[in-house]
Write a structure and sequence with these properties.
Blueprint: H1 5-20, E1 25-26, E2 31-35, H2 36-44, E3 49-53, E4 57-69, E5 74-85, E6 93-106, E7 111-124, H3 131-146, E8 150-153, E9 160-161, E10 164-173, E11 177-184
Antiparallel strand pairs: 1-2, 2-11, 3-4, 4-5, 5-6, 6-7, 7-8, 9-10, 10-11
């Protein structure tokens, strides 16, 4: 069996690149890829969460579900919500929130953060007449819970490649991943 020298060279290049590449870094595209599962795992650490408003309303949030919105370059987090009114002896009200965020890089923290979160949708059965108040609560929840929340923090060695310092650039939300462009400093 005769080995093709071109194939041997290509295999050696791939092996050399793979041995020096960091997890999630694509040597060929010059991007880090953060998979949906990696982002979901980071987001799971933020939940469950309980927020209180004016000691009147308590909002318990659980079961985050991440959706990557490629078309709008944003990330949507769907969560289950339970609202409890401390002043009125009534049963809790269950619903769902969809919180929409951009993604940005913070060089001081070396982290990819959720940016400018907004409430996209509030669903609470039988509470249509309180839609405005529920959207206001949802907007506060989005800011308190997700504003500047780090979904990935780079290790110092991940910002050096081939003996040179690199820094994250443009961030693109894809269908199954978030891609972070890297460039030399």
């Amino acid at each position: 069996m005769r080995l093709n020298p071109s194939l041997l060279f290509a295999a050696a290049c791939v092996a050399a690149g793979a041995s020096s590449a960091f997890a999630g870094y694509n040597l060929w595209t010059g991007e880090y890829s953060l998979t949906r599962q990696e982002l979901q795992t980071a987001l799971d650490k933020r939940f469950p969460a309980t927020l209180r408003y004016a000691e009147v309303v308590s909002v318990q949030l659980s079961h985050p579900r991440l959706v990557l919105d490629e078309a709008n370059n944003r990330v949507t987090t769907h969560v289950d919500a339970r609202l409890t009114n401390a002043l009125l002896p009534s049963p809790p009200v269950d619903g769902k929130l969809a919180l929409n965020s951009g993604v940005r890089y913070d060089p001081a923290k070396r982290a990819v953060l959720l940016d400018n979160p907004t409430v996209q949708q509030v669903e609470v059965a039988g509470m249509g007449q309180y839609r405005e108040q529920l959207n206001a609560i949802g907007a506060v929840v989005a800011q308190q819970l997700l504003k500047d929340y780090p979904v990935y923090t780079f290790k110092p060695e991940e910002l050096r490649f081939g003996g040179k310092d690199i820094e994250p650039g443009a961030i693109t939300v894809g269908k199954d991943e978030v891609r972070v462009e890297v460039k030399q400093r």
